[in-house]
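Input set for joint prediction.
Command: fold jointly, output tokens.
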Amino acid sequence: MATVEQRVGHHDIAHHERSGVVDWITTIDHKKVGILYIVTAMTFFVISGLLALAMRAELAFPGLQFLSAQTYNEFFTMHGTGMIFFFATPLVIGLANYFTPLQIGAADVAYPRLNAMTYWMSLLGALTAFSGFLTTSGAAAFGWTAYSPLTNGTYSPGHGADFWLIGVTMSGTATILGSINLMATIFGMRAPGMTMFRMSVFNWNILITMALIMFSFPALSAGLIMTFIDRHLGGHFFNPAVGGDAVLYQHIFWFFGHPEVYIVILPFFGIITEIIPVFSRKPIFGYRGFVLASLLIGIYSFSVWAHHMFATGVVNGPFFSATSMLIAVPTGIKFFNWIATMWRGKLSFTTPMLFCMGFLFTFLIGGITGVYLAAPAIDYSLTDTYYVVAHLHFVLFGGSAFAIFAGLYFWVPKMTGKMMDERLGKTSFWLMLVGMWITFYPQFQLGIDGMPRRVADYADTASFDRLNLISSIGSGILALGILVFIINFFRSMRTGKTAGNDPWEGYSLEWATTSPPPHHNFYRLPPIRSERPVFDEREALRQRAAEIKAGP
Amino acid sequence: MAEELRFFLRIALYVVAASIAYWIMAKEHAGTVLFLFLAAGCFFFVGAIAHLLRQTHSEIRVDDAQRLHKNRTLDMIDRVIGFEEHPGDASGGPMTLQEQAVPTASVWPIVGAVCVFLFVMGLLFGAWLWVPAILLGLYVARGWLTQLSR
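tokens >
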């Protein structure tokens, strides 16, 4: 075991270098914790994706093929749970863990040991929730929303539901702790010169997301603890027969649930905003407009929760309809700013940029169909149909997942020091784009035709048969695209080209250090005078070189 | 006014306005209480950050020479919810954390997580699991707190 004493930023660090598993288990380095988060999240993405593939295979034809109705319920519950709680949210924390300290010029996060503990709590929570599959009663089968009374002992007997409640609560608590840590990092550990309005848009979006987590996840924890009390300690919070209120659970859940949608999209808006300027060779168009739009989206997201509850008939339609539609305005600002950033830029369509283009097209459809659902009159007829499934996946797969893959192709060279293969990258992009549209676009029509969601079987009609089969074929293509990404990753790690410090000529501070960065992150920091300090320094060097070449 | 403070102040002001509008329009208790809890949370952070800033900086005080607008009202609005940065902010973050020594590796985070896991599983499988959870918790707390002094 080597011991290295280093003076890093404002930390005095005794650096103990270990090797192998012990190093990963005991690490509190934000970069390694970030990688642990990312790898775990991607693992749950694959597991949850396999559950989705099984469901689409079941739905390819009418009638029950190989899944029972109960197993199907477990699969869609754990698919949603895995994707929302154990893939998208931890991936946000993972990317923020890795890149936030780098982008603000810090040596680590504010509370490194707490940071590591949140990861392990998150992992144990995820494993607990999924371990329901190992129980005799099976995994939770009430949907990722865990509505009452589906969660009570009558409809969900056995430990599968309990494991779900405990696992998600534990993971959610870890996420709250992680958000406080990252917020303290952004507020308290910025390098000299790095003012709030010189931070990257990605970091602004992380900050807003952490505030959303801090204020919304406690509502989820409260709701799940109340459900647990109802199940085991004789509580009646959500039992109307003895004075409880099942709709109260929906209020509590969606008070978390809608900000959660933005928790798993705002950071990815940030990634897109990092990538588009770099591959357009232009500064961001309207930096403060981006920040303002992110703030407005975050703030508005707290006042729209009950648009998920229009069908209960007991929520105020005009209030929630108006606030929900209002969110389209700042989102529109972002779209115009992205387009304006690319306008007359020197565009290069590398794999990360292609994923950004895919994001723009698919998320736009997801956003617009969300505006329709914000109108109560339309929502009444489309609620709980496949239209909602299609909308959700255009937002969360076409939006979040495309941005995640854009971010991975963009940042894996920084994290590993290896470039990913462009040819395989582009192949995976086109397979995923085509697969995504073939899978989910027909589901809009299925919803309009009246096919309910969360069913293992459907009426044997020509419309349902054809569209379901197309959708299932699309899911296979989509899975192939993800498989190509996985192959590309492992192949590139073995035989990929060396990335160098700044393979894309990036703008923000992470490109000022080595790939991968050293333990203390930076050997030197460039002067920070704008939101793209690395670009500023590179341009200053170019100008100086030109002046020297021109002579006196 | 420091952006760190304005960040929470903007959310708080919106939530207060939204909760009033919501109560007037819906007269519904669950949502109004949730809104009020959120507003209270935001104001807690506003107060905490203002307190921290007051201890380290004089950021809260509006200096006449640093006015953004001639009109006092516009100036105040801009400082509370606007996007202008104080020229003094460029020297670094106003909430810079104090120097601290941290180890680069620690076994306590993972053991602490296991301890939390045992505790919550005790809710399901019986209070007997709380005995190892509490003992382990005390061991973790001791290790965590004394790690830096060794």
